[in-house]
Amino acid sequence: MIASETLVTYMWILLAVYAAVILFFVVRGARKNKDIQDYAVGNIGFPAWVVGLSLAASMTSAATFIINPGFIALYGISGVISFALVLPIAAFISLIVFTKGFARQGKAVKATTMAQWIGKRYESKNYAIFFAFVALLLMTFIVLINVGLTQVISKSLNAEPFYVLMGITTFVFGYMMFGGANSMVYTNTIQAIIMCIVALILIGSGAEYFTEGIDGFMQKLNAIDPNLTKPTNPSSFLFRDYFEIIVTQIVIGVAIVCQPHIITKSLLLKDSTKVNIYLISGISFMIIFFLVVIVGLYARISFPDFTVNGTTLKMDEIIPTYVVTKFSVGVGLVIVVGLISAGLSTLESLIQSLSITITSDIINPLFNDKFIKNTISINKAVIVVLGIVSFLLSWNQIKNPDISVAIFAQNGVYAYFAAAFVPVLFGTFLKNVSTRSVFIASITAIMVHFGIYYGRITPYMQEPVNNPGVSAAIGIVTSLIVGYVFYKLDETKQRGHTRLDS
To answer: pLDDT confidence of 115, banded at 50, 70, 90?
Structure first.
């Protein structure tokens, strides 16, 4: 039992209030849903800065606040460089570049999902269905968030993780059957503001460790393990050299925005001229959110050997335990709500985008739109199935993690956006792109990523647990080269036909 009885009592009350607030906004948003289009991209003209907050809340999740700081606790400064500097900078630049083009194209092709955008942009139903099936890999991200939320809430309530996970799944998947984009922007905005307050509290929570300046702080880490203060950490499996820390993270950061719950967020803007306000709002909050990983360093100084009350902590338990043991009841409650908000904001976006993709881009096309009039009802049934599958996978990850649920999630999510990168890039910035070139590029990305990871190819894949970022980065670069070669070949062939016809 880590949490005090007082914290447990107040936590139950706070969770009840939090749930009531969410349900209020879900009902408010659901009333405006007339069809699946409204569920997908909403029909309320939200201010651009509010949509930006929704973006920030969706793009930074339980991984940013709960899971990734655990890696920093294990491996130190090398992880901070990777997760708090290189990845965010690459992602922000990519987000700015992609959003402007994608928003224009999105309006032009009238798309509500990533698979639809790709299918309409390349005029290929087969490619759209292929991408809808690839989107099922995003289930791994849902599992990561489920696990992160379960760890935080179970530690705060001294409750069994099994029942906490069941409660989270029932509640979140339950209300997402009705809410959709309208209610999600409301809830995401509140969540982003809470997350910002909590992020600042967490970042400032290690002030006592800096009484002797940064040098004194580094000496504390160095005394625990000299590898914690080095820019690379040869003892880790994620931050061994600059290729993993910088090159891999730049490629991943650039491609990471090609996830449906991130890039399609711009389609919520009813006025595309407000895209700059949307981006400034979102990125400003995300800068603060990404810095939360440094809390992992504070946690390591607090638990040098990762034991509390004689129990050794798993990696995913480090930050929840730090929060419960470090703060007073009042502050602890605020932080736990912030961590829950970090998880729910992305979880809502994933459930929404994945359920619509399955309903609109897999079930309807495969059954020749036989159920098109019952799309909303089918979407609810899909969410129920997603909830059951995610519960089973999440419980398995809680009981038998490969160091962290993050590795499981990264493998799936990285495969998805590796496949999406070339079609989104080419579709946004190039003209007359053949379907063949991008289809081959997507298949190449997935095959190279999984081939390298599970085939243990390259020196980076020789550990018991390996870095999915390396295999995904190689897959992305390979698919870009392959896609561009086929694009040029098809362009040349097209020119030849044009000359012959003339």
So the answer is: confident
b/e map of 475-497 (b: 16 or more CB within 10 Å)?
Answer: bbbbbbebbbebbeebbeeeeee
Condensed to tens digits (0 to 9), the pLDDT of residues 276-308 reads 899 999 999 999 999 999 999 999 999 999 888
To the question of domain 5-13+49-388 being in CATH 2.40.50.100, the answer is: no
Q: What span, in angstroms and rounded, lies between the C-alpha atoms of 116 and 37?
A: 12
Beta-bridge mates of residue 307: 312
Task: Report the 3 state secondary structure along 224-263.
Answer: HCHHHHCCCCCCCCCCCCHHHHHHHHHHHHHHCCCCHHHH
Rounded to the nearest integer, the mean pLDDT of the chain is 87
Alpha helices (H) in 357-404, listed in sequence order: 364-366, 375-399
Give the dihedral sign, CA 367/370/375/380. Answer: negative
Instruction: Name the DSSP letter for residue 310.
Output: T
pLDDT the model gives residue 191? 80
Nearest to 91 by CA among 348, 353, 271, 279: 279
For residues 219 and 206, give the distance between their C-alpha atoms in angstroms, rounded to a whole number. Answer: 15
**Per-residue b/e over 65-75, b at no fewer than 16 CB within 10 Å?**
bbbbbbbbbbb
Quote the CA–CA distance of 140 and 174 in Å, as a whole number.
19
Amino acid symbol at 435 = T
CB neighbour class for 370 (10 Å; exposed up to 12, middle 13-18, buried from 19) = exposed
Quickly count: other Cβ atoms within 10 Å of residue 400's Cβ.
7
Residue 87 CB-density burial (10 A; 0-12 exposed, 13-18 middle, 19+ buried) = buried
Q: Is 455 helix (H, G, I), strand (E, B) or coil?
A: coil
Burial class (CB in 10 A: 0-12, 13-18, 19+), 436: middle
| Distance from chain centroid for Cα 226 | 31
Measured N-to-C along each axis, helices 318-326 and 329-356 cross at an angle, to the nearest 10 degrees, of 150
Of 278, 288, 343, 373, the residue nearest 63 (C-alpha): 343
Residue linked to tokens 């300046």? 213
Q: How many beta carbons lie within 10 A of that of residue 214, not counting itself? A: 8
| Domain boundaries along the sequence of the chain | 5-13+49-388
Q: pTM score, two decimals?
A: 0.88
Helix, strand, coil % over all residues of the chain, rounded to 5:
80, 0, 20
* pLDDT over threshold 70, residue 425: yes
- The answer to whether 449 and 477 are in contact (CB under 8 A) is no
Q: Is the pLDDT of residue 332 over 60?
A: yes
3-state SS of 17-55?
HHHHHHHHHHHHHHCCCCCHHHHHHCCCCCCHHHHHHHH
Write the CB contacts of 233 (distance below 8 Å, at least 6 apart in sequence): 75, 76, 78, 79, 227, 239, 240
- Quick one: DSSP state of residue 308? E
